[in-house]
Amino acid sequence: MIRFDHVVKTYPRSTRPALDGIDLTVEAGEFVFLVGPSGSGKSTIVRLALCEEKVTSGGLTVAGRDLTTIRRRNVPALRREVGTVFQDFRLLPDKTVGQNVAYVLHVLGETPEAVRSAVPAALETVGLAGLEHRLPHQLSGGEQQRVAIARALVRRPTLLLADEPTGNLDPRTSLELVRLLEEINASGTTVVMATHDDRIVDTLRRRVVQLEAGRIVRDEAAGLYLRAPELTAEKTSGEPVRADSEVVPDASPPPTAAEADPLTSKEPVNTIDQGGPAATDGPQR
Ligand SMILES: Nc1ncnc2c1ncn2[C@@H]1O[C@H](COP(=O)(O)OP(=O)(O)OP(=O)(O)O)[C@@H](O)[C@H]1O
Questions:
Q1: In 3D, which of 34, 38, 47 has the Cα closest to residue 219?
Q2: Which residues on adjacent β-strands are paired with residue 66?
Q3: Could you tell me the distance, in angstroms and rounded to a whole number, from the CA of residue 43 to the centre of ligand 1?
Q4: Residues contacting 285, CB < 8 A, separation 6+
Q5: What pLDDT is stored for residue 243 in this prediction?
Q6: Is the pLDDT of residue 104 over 90?
Q7: Most distant CA pair in the chain, distance
Q8: Average pLDDT over every residue of 93-106
Q9: ipTM for the complex shown
Q10: Is the pLDDT assigned to residue 144 strictly greater than 80?
Q11: Which intervals of the chain form a coiled coil (predicted)?
């Protein structure tokens, strides 16, 4: 489902690579936690898999597509297969729950009849039947994140990428949400979740891939959340290190329609277009 092959990612104007030789294979049907301290590269893995960024070198295949050579016109098809959930929910604040979930189907050109049946079904799956007409601000954080999951599920993704989906939720709500992700996984969707939440990782005992400074330092089936000794050392030295379980409130403004869902959001960065290679930061071989 996902294959990183010696992937190096160096962002423009960075001197250090964010990912430094990543080899990672995720098979269809797996549930994988990505863990590691802030800045270790978890979100970069998610962004590369979504084709929001391109690898600097190495190979990357997601859902059968080679993302080092994918053409711009083929990126929407990739994102149709890959559902995403983020820490800050990214719901459209002035649209109802139903409209938030339906939006992506309209973009995909689904018929009104198809939308009318798919939206309640997706909301039922996430336990939000009957809340279709509420606005996001009339929901709890956990409910808002369920809407985001319904929005991801409604297009039946084969892969679900969740980047800190519980980062703004209390522990009980977080666990309920991750149980929902487990159910989704049990029904066949591959799930990859980046998280700082040690309780969740220790409760679920799934595969754990641990990153440190852009490298995989642990890849363990049925793993626990372990902090690296370096992080502990940094904490005791008084350096300002963000605690792994710290909840960081999201202060960013609400998303626009285009930002709310990656299917319709960021143009694929530096994706090879029909006309030829991208201008900057393409694969350097
Ligand atoms: N757009 C960017 N431009 C330059 N550097 C970036 C960019 N995005 C991330 N980085 C750097 O890449 C490294 C990895 O960042 P990344 O966001 O992948 O880490 P993370 O493990 O997801 O962190 P967190 O847990 O805080 O979300 C960090 O050093 C970060 O500063």
A1: 34
A2: 61
A3: 7
A4: 57
A5: 37
A6: no
A7: 60
A8: 94
A9: 0.98
A10: yes
A11: none
As a CATH number, domain 2-260 is 3.40.50.300
- The residue to mutate among 9, 11, 270, having the most atoms of ligand 1 within 8 angstroms of its beta carbon, is 11
Identify which of 4, 13, 34, 43 to mutate to test ligand 1's pocket (most ligand atoms within 8 A of the CB).
43
Threshold 0.95, pTM exceeds: no
Domain boundaries, the chain: 2-260
Which amino acid residue places its CA nearest to atom 30 of ligand 1?
39
> For residue 13, how far is its CA from the centre of ligand 1 (angstroms)?
13
> If you average pLDDT over residues 195-223, what whole number do you get?
95
Phi-psi category of 84—alpha, beta or left, where left has phi over 0 and alpha has psi -120 to 50?
beta
Residue holding tokens 């601000």? 137
What is the rounded end-to-end Cα distance, in angstroms, of the chain? 24
Output the CA 255–ligand 1 centroid distance in Å: 20
